[in-house]
């Protein structure tokens, strides 16, 4: 017997949810930046794609605690969510890493305190 397929997430549904999610994150944790990356940002998402978000958040929490707090605010997501949460200092330290360079170059900025 085949496994049930996940529902298809449309770009419109994702966009609506992202607008709500960004507002919620800004209200509750005040991140410096929120970037959508991965298949949804590239336009290559499939029905099995998750939602990849990168946040820059200046806080004193440990990395896993930061991730947990962000995910708790995104429980209503229309698909699984993967988050990476760096402090500004961590981003500065790791900005030369290929993955971070690619994420920053190809990701879609959803929110920035410093509109450039």
Notes on the structure:
There is one protein chain. The chain has helices at residues 11-28, 39-42, 63-72, 88-94, 98-106, and strands at residues 33-37, 51-56, 81-86, 108-112. By secondary structure, the chain is of the alpha+beta class. α3 (63-72) links the parallel β2 and β3 (81-86). The model has no long low-confidence stretch (mean pLDDT 93).
Briefly note the CATH topology name.
Beta Polymerase, domain 2
Which CATH class is shown?
Alpha Beta
Q: Assign the CATH superfamily.
A: Beta Polymerase, domain 2
- Count of discrete domains: 1
Report low-confidence residues grouped into runs of 5 or more: none
Average of the residue pLDDT scores: 93
For the largest beta-sheet, the strand count, sense and barrel status come to: 4 strands, mixed
User: Tally of extended strands?
Assistant: 4
Helix content: 40-55%
Secondary-structure element order, as H and E? HEHEHEHHE
């Amino acid at each position: 017997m085949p496994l049930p397929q996940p529902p298809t997430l449309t770009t419109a549904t994702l966009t609506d949810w992202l607008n709500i999610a960004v507002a919620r994150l800004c209200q509750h944790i005040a991140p410096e930046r929120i970037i959508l990356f991965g298949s949804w940002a590239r336009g290559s998402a499939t029905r099995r794609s998750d939602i990849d978000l990168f946040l820059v958040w200046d806080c004193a929490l440990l990395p896993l605690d930061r991730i947990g707090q962000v995910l708790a605010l995104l429980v209503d997501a229309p698909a699984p969510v993967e988050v990476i949460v760096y402090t500004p200092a961590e981003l500065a330290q790791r900005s030369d890493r290929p993955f971070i360079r690619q994420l920053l170059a190809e990701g879609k900025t959803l929110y920035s305190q410093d509109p450039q």
